[in-house]
Amino acid sequence: MFLTIDQGTTSSRAILFDGEGQLIDSHQIEFKQIYPDEGWVEHNPEDIISSAILCCENVLERNSGEKIESLGITNQRETVVAWDKNNGKPFYNAIVWQDRRTSEFCGNLKKDGLQETINKKTGLLLDPYFSASKISWLLNNVTGLRSKAIKGEVCFGTIDSWLIWNFTKGKVFATDATNASRTSLFNIKTMNWDSDLLDIFNIPFHCLPQVKNSSDFFGETDQLSRSLKITGVIGDQQSSAFGQFCYKEGEVKSTYGTGCFVLANTGSKIIYSKKNLLSTIAYKIDNEVSYAIEGSIFMAGGLMNWAKSNLGIIDDIADSSDIAANVNPASKVVIVPAFSGLGAPHWSSDSKGTIFGMSQATGKEELIHSALQSVSLQTLDLIKAIKDDFLNNNLTLSSLLRVDGGMVENNWFIQNLSNICNYQIQKAFTKESTALGAALISGLGAGYYSGLDDLRNLSIKRDQASPDMDVILRRNIILNWDKAIKLTIDMTK
């Protein structure tokens, strides 16, 4: 069996899988979200550690007689912690990936013409989303931190590094290549921390962790009732792709949680997107690197939470499938959910949410229908962008989209996603694909699995949906969406 820590944005979880990838047990603990100022998002690093330990102990206690081969870690990416190398105490709260406090700083770097340099080295855009500007902010705003960093007394790490350090009681300061590739400090060609990038963000090299394979040995746990070898570490979206068996060039997955992340494997080739998508590392195993291209949607499942909590137009999110199914599919109501701006491929950070096409006949049902359909339409925009980038690089994108996350339980949404994207949709082997990916990676690191072919044998085909929408209806829906997107972006100019 394999224990996985799935450390997310709102909670920590421990999940136990058997060797066939079946979920055996799990425990989850939510923790506080901290909003010190507008656009600022923080976590207490101690809450992350304590919740992760408690989750693990709950699962271990209930499965005390089971042999556990290894521990895997998957985590929210880009979030950073600064802690004292001598006593392990954090100097400040974790700055979360959603945080926008460094917008002006990133804007100034763009004005200095550094966007292209950073993109070519990292595959990323110059944006507060990524870790480097957050580390720079900590160095410039936490009293005494820069002088301590210069003396070599500070560790900067993403959440995986913070977990590894604490679980090994400071014996191991490391990260894996997937998490490193999300910092804007790691050169995805040379596979090293890049001196030019460190100079741009003014960050000392010796404050950063060692970068390892995803399926490497990261030490043994000293914080749990049982000593476990940590043999797999991978960022959450890469872990989701790995848990959906996207190991080959062209295979693509989409995860629907609060937001949505579409990731397509590009094999040994780095694709530099002409469509505002991100180049990243899918995994690194036995010193072999597989790359990916990725696009993100800021609002997916979060739209239903908005409809329930803010608008009060739905009592139970589970009812949204039946509600949407009873709405005229030709409804012209369009919601553009730019509540935090628009993500890829538009990257319009100043856009605001808009609703078009309402009439006196519009009711809550049409709004729910439109909200769900907007997730399908945003996915279509990403798929089209990925297809164009693949075509420009003589690669072929799979015609099968593998999906996971909470929204895949909504049957109307899955069929609508298939219709709008004109894609075959396949639900994941397990709804816990992200945690499964880390379990499989740790299984490789522990030597339980012999290689990727061994893992592919675990893949069991799940429910699928095929397109069945009228061609003219689909065209009109997409035309209305494209108009609404253009108008939404134009409002910011």
Layout of strands and helices, then pairs:
Blueprint (H helix, E strand, L loop, with lengths): L1 E6 L3 E7 L5 E8 L11 E2 L1 H18 L7 E6 L4 E5 L9 E2 L7 H9 L3 H8 L8 H11 L3 H6 L3 E5 H9 L6 E3 H4 L5 E2 L4 E2 L1 H7 L8 E3 L17 E6 H8 L8 E5 L3 E8 L10 E8 L2 E10 L4 H10 L8 H6 L8 E3 L17 E3 L7 H29 L7 E5 L6 H11 L2 E4 L5 H13 L6 H5 L7 E2 L5 H20 L3
Parallel strand pairs: 1-5, 5-13, 9-12, 14-20, 20-21
Antiparallel strand pairs: 1-2, 2-3, 4-7, 6-8, 10-11, 14-15, 15-17, 16-17, 18-19, 21-22
Structural key phrases:
493 residues, alpha/beta, Nucleotidyltransferase, domain 5, 2 domains, seven-stranded mixed beta sheet, five-stranded mixed beta sheet, 22 strands, globular
The overall average pLDDT, rounded, is 91
Poorly predicted regions: none
Tally of structural domains: 2
Strand content: 15-25%
What does the overall shape look like? globular
Number of strands: 22
The CATH C-level class name of the largest domain: Alpha Beta
Distance between the termini: 55 Å
Q: Please identify the structural class as seen in this structure.
A: alpha/beta
Largest sheet: 7 strands, mixed
Helix content bin: 25-40%
Radius of gyration: 22 Å
Query: What count of helical segments does DSSP give?
Result: 16
